[in-house]
C-alpha cells in the first residue's frame, strides 16, 4: 500500500525533487482518513458523492454533536483499511473541528489520531 506524500498543509510534497511516496500502511491509512475528513461533499469532480456535507448540512446550520459525529465516523469507517471505529470524540466551534479517534485496522494495527482543522 502506498500513497503520495502530503505535507502539513495537505499539499503534495516533493522529496529530492521528486514526488514523495508514503509506504507505511499505518501512515497511509492515517493520511487517507485525514483527506476524507477534509473533503467537502461535491468537491472532487471525479466523484461528487464523496466528502462531508459541510456546506449542505453543517456550516451555518444548527446541528447537534451527534449528527456531526455520525458524518465523521461514517467517513472514517469507509476507509478500506478500517475494520472498526472503537473510540471517537469531536469538538467544534464555528468552522474549527477537533477530532480524536481510535480504530482497528484490517492488517492488525491500531490507529489513534488527533486532528484539528478549519473548513
Summarize the SSE layout with pairings.
Blueprint lengths: L2 E2 L9 E2 L2 E2 L1 E2 L2 H14 L15 H5 L6 H14 L3 E12 L2 E10 L4 E9 L1
Antiparallel strand pairs: 1-4, 2-3, 5-6, 6-7
Overall pLDDT confidence: 86
How many domains make up the coordinates? 1
- Tertiary shape: globular
Question: Can you identify the CATH class?
Answer: Alpha Beta
Structural class: alpha+beta
- The total count of strands amounts to 7
Largest sheet composition: 3 strands, antiparallel
Work out the radius of gyration. 15 Å
CATH third-level topology: Nuclear Transport Factor 2, Chain: A
Strand-residue proportion? 25-35%
- Poorly predicted residue ranges: none
Oligomer: single chain
The second-level CATH architecture is Roll
* Tally of DSSP helical segments: 3
Strand order of the largest sheet: 5-6-7
**How much helical structure, as a percent, in the residues?**
25-40%
Termini Cα gap: 28 Å
Topology pattern, helix = H, strand = E:
EEEEHHHEEE
Amino acid at each position: 500500500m502506498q500513497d503520495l506524500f502530503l505535507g502539513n498543509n495537505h499539499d503534495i510534497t516533493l522529496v529530492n525533487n521528486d514526488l514523495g511516496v508514503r509506504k507505511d500502511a499505518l501512515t497511509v491509512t492515517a493520511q487517507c482518513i485525514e483527506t476524507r475528513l477534509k473533503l467537502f461533499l461535491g468537491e472532487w469532480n471525479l466523484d461528487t458523492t464523496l466528502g462531508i456535507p459541510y456546506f449542505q448540512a453543517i456550516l451555518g446550520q444548527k446541528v447537534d454533536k451527534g449528527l456531526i459525529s455520525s458524518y465523521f465516523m461514517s467517513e472514517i469507517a469507509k476507509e478500506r483499511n478500517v475494520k472498526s471505529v472503537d473510540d471517537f470524540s469531536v469538538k467544534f466551534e464555528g468552522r474549527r473541528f477537533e477530532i480524536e479517534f481510535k480504530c482497528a485496522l484490517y492488517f492488525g494495527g491500531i490507529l489513534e489520531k488527533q486532528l484539528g482543522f478549519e473548513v
